[in-house]
Protein: Ankyrin repeat-containing protein isoform 1
Amino acid sequence: MLTYLPLRCLGLKSLVCISFDCGVIGAMAARVKYSWSLALVLLCIVSLSYFGNAADIGASFVFGDSLVDAGNNNYLPTLSKANIPPNGIDFKASGGQPTGRYTNGRTIGDIVGEELGVPNYAVPFLSPNSTGKAILYGVNYASGGGGIMNATGRIFVNRLGLDIQIDFYNTTRKQFDKLLGPSKAKDYIRKSSIFSITIGANDFLNNYLLPVLSIGARISETPDGFIDDMINHLRDQLTRLYQLDARKFVIGNVGPIGCIPYQKTINQLNENECVDLANKLAKQYNSRLQNLLTELNGKLPGATFVVANVYDLVMELITNYEKYGFITASKACCGNGGQFAGIIPCGPTSTMCKDRDKHVFWDPYHPSEAANLIIARQLLYGSTKYISPVNLKQLRNL
Ligand SMILES: *[C@@H]1O[C@H](CO)[C@@H](O)[C@H](O)[C@H]1NC(C)=O
Ligand SMILES: *[C@@H]1O[C@H](CO)[C@@H](O)[C@H](O)[C@H]1NC(C)=O
Ligand SMILES: *[C@@H]1O[C@H](CO)[C@@H](O)[C@H](O)[C@H]1NC(C)=O
Structure:
């Protein structure tokens, strides 16, 4: 108890614990009088739980694409939509109704927020609910079809690219000043809030690698040139977030996009084959991303950039799916077309598997909630193999 309390006190930074160090008081009191020591320890415990909440939970700001969209596209005239059944069928908070999440249950962003103790899922920026105190626990700006490059996802007619997502965060940032006052707002955002960015896959899938539409771009720009553009753009985007007081960042790298049911189906691959070019581009981008984050960790004082190694994590699930209790890592649970149900997105007329937690992929593009849970836990508590230089639990406590 006595060694545990001071650590909690420092972690919580609550008013009472800054003015009295609970551990010291507890240790002194233990030598003085039993009743006093008990009362003081109780006072400390009460203050810890009372001030612990609002002062320390912080906000979770979620940027990215359909992997973490929690409903922004519901409010856009777009061809990329997930607020149709059976999406969300296992999402408890909505009683199984679709919410705009591109999976059967929770996204990685939802699970991470939950495990870090945030009481509500970050509200979608475009939802009418993203006003007042609701935003203090975080806001979700992610949009299905969005990418680092502004042109990415234009086949969907509408989507929020990362530039626009950061413009929206700029609006939220001003709302925080109004809600908390400028000095508290700055502290809350810098010290207690986490900025997660899950983006890049669409820059390949729905831009550079698009059949037919992208042929022009691929002739005029080499993979190296395109990835250079992506990294340079992302550097500016992350720097803008830093200027708006973001300090604790986690950036997902691009997963093995050559292994998703959509790519396997359109390229008519066998069960355990993946599309080489797509995976090669993802790996090339990921290695540049790692260098960029190392650069920014050195260049932007007070910032911590963590890279989530989504590529290796998802590849591990795909390669050793049986070890994790899955029966397939190639066939989408919900979808239609071809041998991996990978052509037509999940919707009311799709066929759906019975055992949704035994499929790595929910639909032609997105992992199931069961896969998201395994991924999220590795990011929260795992080793530097999958999340580095620190895991999300450690980032939270920095
Ligand atoms: C908005 O908040 C209300 C009340 O809390 C809730 O019933 C509703 O589902 C929310 N809507 C969205 C889109 O989150
Ligand atoms: C980005 O795309 C939008 C349309 O989606 C366009 O209105 C805007 O001007 C573009 N921005 C830049 C910087 O190209
Ligand atoms: C945020 O918005 C203000 C205008 O309200 C603008 O002057 C500023 O440059 C923006 N900051 C960033 C980093 O985009």
Remarks:
- The chain has two domains: 1-55, 58-397.
- The first strand starts at residue 60 and ends at 64.
